[in-house]
Amino acid sequence: MDVLVIHLLNALLYASVLFLIAGGLSLIYGVMRIVNMAHGNLYAFGAYVTAWAIGSVAAGAPTALLLVLLPVGALAAAVLGAALEPTLLRPFYQRAEEYQLLVTFGLLMILEDLLRFVWGPYPLSASEVFENFGSLTLGDSLYPTYNFLVIGVGIVAATFLWAFIYKTRFGVVLRATSQNMRMASALGVNVNRVYIEAFTLGCFMAGLGGAIIVPGQSAVLGMGIDAVVLAFIVVVVGGLGSLEGALVGALIVGVVREAGITWFPEIELAVLYLIAAIVLLIRPAGLFGRP
Amino acid sequence: MSTGAVTASAIAHESALVRNVMRWAVPIAVLLLVVPWIVPPYTAILLTYGLIMAIAALGFNLLLGYTGLLSFGHSAYFGVGAYVVALMVKYLKVGSMELFLFGAIIGSVIVTAVFGWVCVRYTRIFFSILTLALSQVLWSLAFKFFWVTGGTDGLRVPTPSLLVGLVTGKGDKTDFMSHAYYYYVLVIFFACVVLMWVIVNSPFGKALQAIRDNETRAEFVGVQIWRYRFVAFLVSGVFTGLAGALWVPLNGLTTPDIIHWSFSGEMVFMTVLGGFRSFAGPIIGAVVFNYLKTYAVGYTVYWQLLLGAVLVVLVLSLPTGIVGTAGRLAARWKKGS
Question: Where are the domains of chain A?
């Protein structure tokens, strides 16, 4: 029984982080119709900045202060996103999708090496926070308390995002732009501003994912590239451009990954990719996507 | 206008095209033939890598340039070619290059048929993501089943014998690779170029271009889109698989890295670098990219940054690639003089 609970918690842990990454990817696609291949690098960037802030700059400070510093990575990713959208992506909205994929692939290569340039080739850890939280006893087993925080942040982020998109004025404008960019523009919406805000929000979410996961793991090179492929699976399963889809997709991928690691480690990744392929075959637009 | 006039002008156009191509192709072919005798072995081996990648890019561009489908999973077929060879060495103790090529073609036909059957139902971004996901299935298998594939250590492949054992790789490996193997690759490269030229200029190739430019119209004219795309996918994958089989004896080792989707990205990169709207683009792009990457890797640990910046500048300002830009410059120069 305890074992099952622990597996479930682990699945939720994966799902929380995956939702933050894939939700941002999907939001950006939903509004701007662009698939950002470098999205995983923004997640990695968030992880590196947080690891650097609480692992080296403020190392030894009280846990409360470290927790306050945790979202630094998310803010840094948001700033990076706000700088990238108008400079690098804006010239590509009118051009064929191939060019959009290519320019973000180029960005992926650049960001990957910038991380290496700034923080060196070795993993950067911020395990102090993780250790300070200690662990909880679940029946006969121990479970790290910090992981509950990650799951909590995932749930809070999903709730906030839902409220933001469906209950605020900005959300209305965002959805209007997503449905019909020209019409929104004709009605007086500043589309450029909506684009930059949506992209910044998406990057913030990816950065937050990196920031909250880094105390439990560590920031390593290549984490962004691995994450973006998983995020692709999530959005393919859930439907590109749909936030509900990203949530359900993240839960499915989280559960399958946890089951895979436990029972079929050799084909864990293969099963995930196959699920994505099967969903695409049956529902080309994904579970929640608009065809 | 009578159909006879159309055909005659088409033939005149065609032969002018062929003459134009010959003016370029013949000197380049002659140059390629004498390369091993005028450059150091290392440069010849680098060029061999370039020619092999050119075969892969040529296949890749049948999808991107001629059918309008951007695959981000061509590393899978390259990897199938390479791993079929490595597994033939490991389990069947085969050492003949012809058997390697035969096995690689069979292997890549099977894998591309299965993947293609799934993928060609989609276009645009969904096609790209689906090909990427399927290639990652193979990557994860090569990565995890280490008792078969050697995992990240990869599999070693010894120097093969060429031409049913007439030429063996005994003796100096560098000399073998920069001469005998270079010519072997060169002949296959020429054959692939001619074959691809015939394919893209055949009615089949024209139908693919019609699908690329306007799917609905092509369907009205009676082109069976699904079937054409599937065959294009198959041909494209097999070219890339053949390149994988040629690559692995030269490299001596195959690792899961060549199936990872970032290697697919490199194939896309070289095709765009050369220019995917022209026949020669991917060939030139592959050879140039190979030199570019080799020198960038040798020059700095931040070679990805360098190449990424090149890619961004390329798509921003020179979307037609090397061939397209050179053509434009030549046209302007001709007009000026």
Answer: 16-222
Burial B224-262 (b: 16+ CB within 10 A, else e): ebeebbbbbbbbbbbbbbbbbbbbbbbbeebbbebbbbb
Q: Tell me the C-alpha to C-alpha distance, in Å, between residue A71 and each of A114, A133, A134, B122, B257.
A: 21, 17, 21, 39, 34
Interface A:B, Cβ pairs < 8 A = 118
Question: Which stretch of DSSP H or E encloses residue A47?
Answer: helix A39-52
Asked if the Cβ–Cβ distance from A277 to B133 is below 8 Å, we say yes
**B130 and A CB contact within 8 Å:** yes
Closest CA relative to residue A36, chosen from A250, A256, A195: A195
3-state secondary structure of A168: coil
Q: How far apart are CA A16 and CA A156, in angstroms?
A: 10
- Cβ of A280 within 8 Å of Cβ of B311? The answer is no
Looking at residue B292, its pLDDT comes to: 86
Q: How far is B276 from chain A (nearest CA, A)?
A: 11
Torsion from C-alpha of A113, A115, A119, A123, nearest 10 degrees? -100
Query: In angstroms, rounded to a whole number, what is the distance separating the alpha carbons of residues A195 and A31?
Result: 7
Residue B2 has pLDDT above 70, yes or no: no
Interface TM-score (ipTM) > 0.85: no
Residue B1's pLDDT band (cuts 50, 70, 90):
very low
Yes or no, beta carbons of B130 and A265 under 8 Å apart: no
CA dihedral B104, B107, B110, B116 (to 10 degrees): -60
pLDDT for the residue B303:
82
Q: What's the average model confidence in pLDDT over B2-13?
A: 56
The tokens for B337 are 């003089």
pLDDT in the model for residue B238: 93
Q: Which residues of B touch A107 (CB under 8 A)?
A: 308, 312
- Cα(A67)–Cα(A81) distance, integer angstroms: 23
Instruction: State how far the Cα of A106 lies from the Cα of B317, in Å rounded to an integer.
Output: 14
Strand A141-144 to A135-138 pairing: antiparallel
CA-based nearest residue in chain B for residue A116: B302
